[in-house]
Amino acid sequence: MAKETRPIMGRVVAITGGARGIGKATARALVREGARVAIGDIDVDLARQTAEELGSGTRAYYLDVTDRASFERFLDEVERDFGTIDVLINNAGIMHVNRFVEEDDAAAERQIDINLKGVIIGSKLFIRRAIERGRSGHLVNVASQAGKAGYPGIATYCATKHAVVGLSQALALEYEDRGIDVSCVMPVVVDTELGQGIRDARGFKKIKPDDVAREIVAALRRPRFNVHVPKSVGPVGKIIQLLPERGQRLAAKLFGTDRLLLDAIGRREEYERRAARSEPSRSGQSALPAGSDVRLPEGVAEEQKSEARR
């Protein structure tokens, strides 16, 4: 039975990694629908700029998704400013492209920490709050088509996204009777910084962040678990999964996905440098102007004041 349509107007939505890319596009789409939006990002300067650009009361907050205390503070501050959070969108993520044995161990750890650990922490905190308050809620985990198949050149990234898909499936079943909806978003390559240097696959062009945002809004309006972007990749993927292993490999060669990411190696220097700096650092926590609508935990704020005096 199809679930009833739910209004977006007035709902409180928290988005991780909301300063750019899919997160920013989703925030924009939700603001247009009348949602009250909070964006969390480790790049607080960019988060502030995004919040100011979107307007309509959008607020930005410092958030390190890999740090449970930081995530807890983020949710606390959003609820203090907006009220109970109705929707959490776990969007923050990074992707390093390289041959597996040449991938730096630190790059692998960053992807696991941000793409998987961050989603686990956020999901747990959000669901726990919903249960304690006896309220329904909607959890949206942004995975990838890389969570449904394996692609050479992004083995670790695939591992993290497969884990997010499995986690989301388990949570959807585990908490359905508590009134908590779970959606798993699985786009193809998106035309963002993360998709830098990656060409189109045969039959599937890179999509825009707004395409993903549109489907996320649709899933919030009429809840569903599988959110494939574009929708056509869902049926195609199911057909490929029914093929024997040899057939799946032939399909990868046919669509060019056996080389798609490998061919991008060496063409993503700018993104790779930024992703390598994705851990919390002073450069990502620069002092904010007076009156800024960015909320920082006290420890970070004090560190910034001390740094500014040096």
From TrEMBL:
This is NADP-dependent 3-hydroxy acid dehydrogenase YdfG. SUPFAM superfamilies: NAD(P)-binding Rossmann-fold domains. InterPro entries: NAD(P)-bd_dom_sf (IPR036291), Sc_DH/Rdtase_CS (IPR020904), SDR_fam (IPR002347). Transmembrane segments: none annotated. PANTHER family: PKSB, RETINOL DEHYDROGENASE 10. Keywords: Oxidoreductase. The keyword DNA damage does not apply. Belongs to the short-chain dehydrogenases/reductases (SDR) family. Residues 272-310 are annotated as: Disordered. It comes from Thermoleophilum album. The keyword Oxidoreductase applies. Pfam families: adh_short. One of its GO terms (molecular function) is oxidoreductase activity, acting on the CH-OH group of donors, NAD or NADP as acceptor.
